C-alpha cells in the first residue's frame, strides 16, 4: 500500500512531522514501512514548456521542429513524439537537466537542426508504462492549460510528494485505505482525522425504476447494491486525480473508472462501473457460475467459469467476475451515457479461489480477500456517485437498489486495567489508558474496574481481550515497555540425539573431501520424480511462482546435479558435494493430506579425485570412490557389518551396470552409482557418481554409544588367500563367506588384487585377500590359524565353488 504524504495531510495536520519521522513512528507502532519514495529525486531542471509553433522537420518524416516557450525565452527543440503539436503545455528538460536513469540532456543537433533540450514523455520522468494513460503511452504528456511556462513541472504532477510504502499484514487490512491509515496516524499523534463530506444530490426518478437487483445466496454476497447515474460525459479525469492514481500505481482511464479507483484507495471499498446500456437488460442477478459458462474480461481474455465462481449477470449471462474483474461487454467507454455503479461484499474465500484459478490478482480482489469495512459499503458507493456526477456531469437517480444488506453486529470487549498492566508489565494509570482508547476512536464505559470497549466496524480485526491489550501496547509504545529478565530456574539447552548424530555425519563427510550444499526444496515435476527408490506422489503447489519451482522434491540428487552444472559451467571441473535435507513423500491420494517429511543424505561427485602432478597421473572419480565414502561413514556409525549392496537396474536415471541398492539389515535405505550418461547430458554435467540415503532410517539404527576396544597387546597375524571364482561372484559374497567360517579371531578382510586375463579361463576372475587374525587374550598359534584357514577354504569351495590358487 502506497500512502501519499500530501493526501494524508488533507485529513490530519502533519505540518510538524516529516515523512521520515512519520515512517519511523508507524514502524514502531505495528505497521511496517518498506521505504519512502520521492518521484522527483534524481531529476532536475525540468520545467513546463508551451509549444508555440510546430513544423515538420525538412529531413525527417517523423521529427518536428518546435518553438517552445520556457518562461524567459522561446527556444527551439526537435521532438520525435507523434502527438506533439502547437498550443500544448508539455514537460521540457532543459540543457544540463537530468532525467530518469541519471541521463544528462545536452544541446545538440538532430538531422542538422539545433535542439536546445528535450520534450519529455512520462516514461522519461520515471513513470512505469503500466500507469501512464493510454493516450500518452506512445508520446509526450500534455500538462493542464493553466500550467505556467518556465515553472518546475514537479508540483503539477505531484512528483514532489513523498510516497510511503506500507507492508500490510493480513490482520491489518483496515490500513489498505487512506481513511484507515488516517485513523492509524491520528491515533499515533492524538488527532482525529476529518474527512470532507461528499455532496450527493439525487434526482426525483428512483433507480429502482431502471434496474432490478437479485442475490441468490447472501452467504456469497452479504451486501450488494447498484446506483444509477444518467447523462454522464466520459472524458479524461482532472489532473489532480490522474496524479493521485499514477502515484499509487494505477493507470488513469477516464473520469468514471478513475473515480471507482479513487474511492477504492480512499475507503478500501472496491467498486465497479457498468455501462448500463450494454447490460442489455434491466436486471442484475448475482449467482454462482454454471459449468462451461464463458466471460470475456476487461483484459480481453475469455474465461470459463464454474460453480466455484461468483458471477454478476444481466439475468442471463455473466457480465463480471465478482470481486475480481469486470466483463469487456459492459465496459465504460467514450460512448457511455448511463452508469450502473456496483458496491458489494463478497465471500473472501470464493474471491481468493477465483483470483487464483484465473491468475487474476487485482487491487479489488486483494481487499475482498483480506476484509472490508462493512459499515462503509453504502457510504463509498454514495461518495463515488457524487464524484461521478461532479466530474462527468451526471445525474444520480434516487436511492440505491439493494439485493442484500449486511447487518453490522456491535463488538464490545471487556477488560480491566489490572489485566492490561499484568500482561504488559507496566504501571499505566487509568487516565492514560482512557486517553489511548480515545485516540484509537474506541468508545469506552467503565463499570467498577472493568472497561467495556466498543470497537468500531473499521477495526474488524479486534474481537478479544488480547487484541485490546495489543492496541494499548502499540499506541503506548513498544519502546516504553519494560525490559525484564525471565525469572525462575534456567535449564541448559542441548542437542537432540538426531542433531548430534547429524553433526557427526557432516564432520565425517567433510573429512572425506565433500562440501555441503543447500539446494531448493521446490523443483519441477520431472526432476522431483527422478532418483526415487520408494513410491510417492508429488506434492504440487497450488500457486507456484514459476513452473521450475512448482512441486516439492522427492530426492536431493537432482538439486546437487544442478549445483554441479553451475560449477562446471564456470570451469570448476572437480566438484564434490553433499546435502542433508528433507524430501516430501505423499502416499495418500487426497490433495488435502500433508506430505511426510523425510530426512535424506545425498552425495554427488564429478571430475578428478586428484589432478596430475610430478609423481602421479590424474585419477578420475569412480564408483568405488563414492562407495568408499559411504563405507567410511557406515564404519564410523557402527553399521558396516549390517550394510550390504545389491546391483540394480531399476533406477532409470542411474547407469544399469554401475549402480547398487544399499541395504541395512535387508531393508533398502538408498543407492549408490553412476548417473546415467543420458541423464547427465540433460543436466549438462560430466561423468558423475552419486548416492542417496534415507537419513532418518540410518539415524534410527545408529547407536549413540561408542564401545571402546583396547588395542591387543598380542601380535596380529596376516595370511593371504587367492581364489579363482566365477566372474559373477561379487566381493561382498566372498567377504561374507570368509567371515562366516573364520571364527572369532578374524579381525579384518581386505581385497588387494583382482585379475582377469592371461592364464585365467574365460568367465573366471582371480581375487586375492589379506586376512588379519588377532587374539586379544593370547598369542595365536600356527595350529589355530591353520584351522581357521581350513574352515574358510572349505566354506568358499562349498558355497561359491571357489578354487584356492
UniProtKB/TrEMBL annotation:
InterPro entries: aa-tRNA-synth_II/BPL/LPL, B3/B4_tRNA-bd, DNA-bd_dom_put_sf, Fdx_antiC-bd, Fdx_antiC-bd_sf, NA-bd_OB-fold, Phe-tRNA-ligase_IIc_bsu, Phe-tRNA-ligase_IIc_bsu_bact
Top-level taxon in the UniProt lineage: Bacteria
Known catalytic reactions: tRNA(Phe) + L-phenylalanine + ATP = L-phenylalanyl-tRNA(Phe) + AMP + diphosphate + H(+)
Domain called TRNA-binding: residue spans: 40-154
Main location (coarse class): cytoplasm
Cofactor note: Binds 2 magnesium ions per tetramer.
Name of the top EC class for this enzyme: ligase
Keywords (A to Z) from UniProt: Aminoacyl-tRNA synthetase, ATP-binding, Cytoplasm, Ligase, Magnesium, Metal-binding, Nucleotide-binding, Protein biosynthesis, RNA-binding, tRNA-binding
Any coiled-coil regions, as ranges: none
SUPFAM superfamilies, sorted: Anticodon-binding domain of PheRS, Class II aaRS and biotin synthetases, Nucleic acid-binding proteins, PheT/TilS domain, Putative DNA-binding domain
Pfam families xrefs: B3_4, B5, FDX-ACB, tRNA_bind, tRNA_synthFbeta
Positions annotated to bind Mg(2+): 461, 467, 470-471
Cellular localization per UniProt: Cytoplasm
GO function term, MF aspect, one: ATP binding
Gene Ontology, cellular component aspect: phenylalanine-tRNA ligase complex
Residue span(s) of domain FDX-ACB: 712-805
CDD domains, alphabetized: PheRS_beta_core, tRNA_bind_bactPheRS
Domain spans labelled B5: 408-483
Cofactors that this protein relies on: Mg(2+)
EC number(s) stated in the UniProt entry for this protein: 6.1.1.20
GO biological process assignments: phenylalanyl-tRNA aminoacylation
Family: Belongs to the phenylalanyl-tRNA synthetase beta subunit family. Type 1 subfamily.
NCBIfam families linked: pheT_bact, YtpR
Subunit structure: Tetramer of two alpha and two beta subunits.
Protein name in UniProt: Phenylalanine--tRNA ligase beta subunit
Gene (name only): pheT
Amino acid at each position: 500500500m502506497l500512502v501519499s504524504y500530501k493526501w494524508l495531510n488533507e485529513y490530519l495536520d502533519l505540518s510538524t512531522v516529516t515523512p521520515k519521522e512519520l515512517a519511523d513512528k508507524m514502524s514502531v507502532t505495528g505497521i511496517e514501512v518498506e521505504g519512502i519514495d520521492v518521484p522527483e529525486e534524481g531529476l532536475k531542471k525540468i520545467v513546463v514548456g508551451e509549444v508555440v509553433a510546430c513544423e515538420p522537420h525538412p529531413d525527417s518524416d517523423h521529427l518536428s521542429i518546435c518553438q517552445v516557450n520556457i518562461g524567459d525565452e522561446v527556444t527551439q527543440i526537435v521532438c520525435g513524439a507523434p502527438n506533439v503539436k502547437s498550443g500544448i503545455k508539455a514537460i521540457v528538460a532543459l540543457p544540463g537537466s537530468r532525467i530518469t536513469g541519471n541521463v544528462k540532456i545536452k544541446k545538440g543537433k538532430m538531422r542538422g537542426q539545433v535542439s536546445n533540450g528535450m520534450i519529455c514523455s512520462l516514461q522519461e520522468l520515471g513513470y512505469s508504462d503500466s500507469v501512464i494513460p493510454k493516450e500518452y503511452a506512445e508520446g509526450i504528456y500534455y500538462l493542464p492549460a493553466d500550467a505556467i511556462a518556465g515553472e518546475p513541472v514537479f508540483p503539477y504532477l505531484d512528483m514532489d510528494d513523498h510516497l510511503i510504502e506500507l507492508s500490510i499484514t493480513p490482520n491489518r487490512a483496515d490500513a489498505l485505505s487512506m481513511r484507515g491509515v488516517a485513523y492509524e496516524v491520528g491515533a499515533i499523534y492524538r488527532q482525529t482525522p476529518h474527512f470532507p463530506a461528499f455532496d450527493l444530490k439525487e434526482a426525483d426518478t428512483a433507480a429502482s425504476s431502471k434496474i432490478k437487483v437479485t442475490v441468490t445466496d447472501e452467504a456469497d454476497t452479504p451486501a450488494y447494491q447498484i446506483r444509477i447515474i444518467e447523462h454522464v460525459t466520459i472524458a479524461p479525469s482532472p489532473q489532480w486525480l490522474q496524479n493521485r492514481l499514477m502515484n499509487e500505481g494505477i493507470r488513469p482511464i477516464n473520469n468514471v473508472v478513475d473515480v471507482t479507483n479513487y474511492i477504492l484507495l480512499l475507503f478500501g471499498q472496491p467498486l465497479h462501473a457498468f455501462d448500463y446500456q450494454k447490460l442489455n437488460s434491466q436486471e442484475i442477478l448475482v449467482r454462482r457460475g454454471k459449468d462451461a459458462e464463458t466471460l470475456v474480461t476487461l483484459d480481453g481474455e475469455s474465461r470459463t467459469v464454474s460453480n466455484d465462481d461468483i458471477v454478476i449477470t444481466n439475468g442471463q449471462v455473466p457480465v463480471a467476475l465478482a470481486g475480481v474483474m469486470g466483463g469487456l461487454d459492459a465496459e465504460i467507454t467514450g460512448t457511455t451515457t448511463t452508469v450502473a455503479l456496483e458496491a458489494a461484499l463478497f465471500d473472501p474465500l470464493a474471491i481468493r479461489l477465483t483470483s487464483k484459478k484465473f491468475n487474476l490478482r487485482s487491487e479489488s480482489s486483494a481487499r475482498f480477500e483480506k476484509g472490508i469495512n462493512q459499515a462503509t459499503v453504502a457510504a463509498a458507493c454514495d461518495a463515488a456517485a457524487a464524484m461521478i456526477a461532479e466530474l462527468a456531469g451526471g445525474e444520480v437517480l434516487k436511492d440505491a437498489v439493494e439485493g442484500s444488506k449486511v447487518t453490522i453486529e456491535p463488538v464490545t470487549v471487556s477488560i480491566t486495567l489490572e489485566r492490561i498492566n499484568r500482561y504488559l508489565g507496566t504501571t499505566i494509570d487509568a487516565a492514560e489508558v482512557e486517553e489511548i482508547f480515545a485516540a484509537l476512536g474506541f468508545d469506552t464505559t467503565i463499570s467498577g474496574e472493568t472497561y467495556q470497549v466498543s470497537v468500531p466496524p473499521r477495526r474488524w480485526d479486534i474481537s478479544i481481550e488480547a487484541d485490546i491489550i495489543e492496541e494499548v501496547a502499540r499506541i503506548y509504545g513498544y519502546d516504553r515497555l519494560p525490559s525484564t529478565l525471565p525469572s525462575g530456574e534456567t535449564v541448559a539447552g542441548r542437542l537432540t540425539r538426531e542433531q548430534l548424530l547429524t553433526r557427526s555425519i557432516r564432520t565425517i563427510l567433510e573429512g572425506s573431501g565433500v562440501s555441503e550444499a543447500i539446494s531448493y526444496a521446490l523443483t519441477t515435476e520431472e526432476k522431483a520424480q527422478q532418483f526415487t527408490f520408494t513410491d510417492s506422489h508429488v506434492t504440487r503447489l497450488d500457486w507456484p511462482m514459476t513452473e521450475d519451482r512448482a512441486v516439492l522434491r522427492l530426492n536431493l540428487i537432482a538439486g546437487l546435479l544442478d549445483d554441479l552444472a553451475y560449477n562446471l559451467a564456470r570451469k570448476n571441473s572437480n566438484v564434490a558435494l553433499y546435502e542433508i535435507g528433507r524430501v516430501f513423500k505423499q502416499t495418500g491420494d487426497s490433495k488435502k493430506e500433508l506430505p511426510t517429511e523425510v530426512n535424506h543424505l545425498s552425495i554427488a561427485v564429478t571430475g578428478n579425485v586428484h589432478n596430475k602432478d610430478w609423481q602421479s597421473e590424474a585419477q578420475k572419480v569412480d564408483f568405488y570412490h563414492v562407495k568408499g565414502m559411504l563405507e567410511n561413514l557406515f564404519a564410523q556409525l557402527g553399521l558396516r557389518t549390517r550394510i550390504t549392496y545389491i546391483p540394480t537396474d531399476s533406477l532409470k536415471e542411474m547407469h544399469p551396470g554401475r549402480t547398487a541398492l544399499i541395504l541395512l539389515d535387508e531393508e533398502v535405505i538408498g543407492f549408490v552409482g553412476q548417473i546415467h550418461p543420458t541423464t547427465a547430458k540433460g543436466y549438462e554435467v560430466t561423468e558423475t557418481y552419486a548416492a542417496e540415503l534415507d537419513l532418518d532410517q540410518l539415524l534410527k539404527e545408529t547407536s549413540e554409544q561408542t564401545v571402546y576396544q583396547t588395542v591387543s597387546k598380542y601380535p596380529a597375524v596376516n595370511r593371504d588367500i587367492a581364489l579363482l571364482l566365477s566372474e559373477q561372484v561379487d566381493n561382498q559374497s566372498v567377504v561374507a563367506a570368509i567371515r562366516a567360517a573364520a571364527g572369532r579371531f578374524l579381525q579384518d578382510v581386505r581385497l588387494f588384487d583382482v585379475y582377469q586375463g592371461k592364464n585365467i579361463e574365460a568367465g573366471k576372475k582371480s581375487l586375492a585377500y589379506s586376512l588379519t587374525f588377532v587374539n586379544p587374550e593370547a598369542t595365536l598359534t600356527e595350529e589355530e590359524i591353520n584351522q581357521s584357514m581350513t574352515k574358510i577354504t572349505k566354506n568358499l569351495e562349498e558355497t561359491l565353488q571357489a578354487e584356492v590358487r
